[in-house]
Specification:
63 residues; 3-stranded antiparallel sheet; 3 strands; 0% helix; globular
Length: 63
């Protein structure tokens, strides 16, 4: 479920609830609102993972 939506103009960021939290980036203004349920598919070549405690990029991580 979407917890929050942040729109910057060029993109919208959808923050999900649960573990792990996902931040989904969409182009333009999202029509999705907080409380909506969404489906997500992942393109491994475009995923960015971060170490939760330090925020360090996990570039070598594989899915």
């Amino acid at each position: 479920m979407v917890n929050a939506v942040e729109t910057t103009g060029a993109a919208s960021y959808l923050f999900t609830e649960g573990e792990p939290e996902l931040i989904v980036t969409t182009e333009g203004t999202a029509t999705i609102r907080a409380g909506d349920t969404i489906g997500v598919s992942v393109d491994p070549a475009r995923v960015h993972l971060f170490e939760p405690e330090t925020g360090a990029s996990l570039r070598s991580a594989s899915l």
